[in-house]
Amino acid sequence: MGRTVAGLRATGRGVLVTGASRGIGRAVAAAFARQGDRVAVHCSTRRADAEETLAALEGEGHVLLAADLADPERVLALATEAEEALGGVDVLVNNAAVMVAHPPADTSYQDWQDAWRRTVDVNLLGAAHLSHCVARRMIDGGREGRIVNIGSRGAFRGEPDHPAYGATKAALHALGQSLAVALAPHGIAVASVAPGFVATERVAGRLDGPEGADIRAQSPFGRVADPAEIAAAVLYLASPAAVWSSGTVLDVNGASYLRT
Ligand code: NAP
Predict the structure, then answer these.
(1) Domains of the chain, with CATH numbers?
(2) Which among 28, 51, 125, 200 is the best mutation to test ligand 1's pocket, defined by most ligand atoms within 8 Å of the CB?
(3) 132-145 pLDDT, tens per residue?
(4) What SS3 state is found at 104?
(5) Is the CB of 246 under 6 A from ligand 1?
(6) Of the candidates 175, 42, 180, 160, the residue with the CA atom closest to the CA atom of residue 102
């Protein structure tokens, strides 16, 4: 494929998707592969699931890479391994995250601290450090690129049982906006998607349980999102056509929460 005016190819790119063992990350990896990109499927503990993601990808040149994003040295190694395996990372999708319950009224101070530290280490610092490592390689390689963060509606609507999760997602949106400004002179566009409830393995128990009907009723469509609907938004924000959306936080929540 020829290069566009923005310098980023539409297909045949190297794409690193964090947290692609299952759920939204798996759908994002599949969507990029389907349109002809080469994907580095990243996982942490669910290697067998990540192997399944990898095996199902269309096309060739895909790889599996494992790293705990809470470890800054592993983050640096992951960026290097992805660069080498893909021949350069054109698109980084910061999707990996943890959601640790710690309702303030029912959580001990020690558990509260542990939940905050773990959540910040993975959801915020993991994404921040990996963005730095990958962006530096894009700049050094003279490659224009894209970074897309998977944020959350919870950043705006509140997460009463998972306050650290909501806070890190708000911070991730803000990080994306700062990086959008800082990296634009290098031809790197940065944006975030803020999904509402999505039917992934992680939340299947809640959707199938007594609160399932209420969760579906959050959207006037009367359902939750399919992971492929989040992947479609990511694909767009990573495309050459979306350069002018750099800095945006795109709501993908079925009108379940409208920001003013
Ligand atoms: P998920 O199924 O729990 O997947 C999370 C991924 O993050 C897994 O691949 C996991 O790897 C990886 N991960 C967790 N801790 C990690 C660590 N320390 N280092 C590296 N990777 C780590 O989640 P999901 O429901 O698909 O959600 C994906 C993203 O969408 C998250 O950012 C989430 O906050 C966001 N989101 C989800 C929803 C929803 O309703 N599902 C709504 C809004 C936003 P392993 O499995 O290999 O351990």
Answers:
(1) 11-252 (3.40.50.720)
(2) 200
(3) 999 999 999 999 99
(4) helix
(5) no
(6) 160
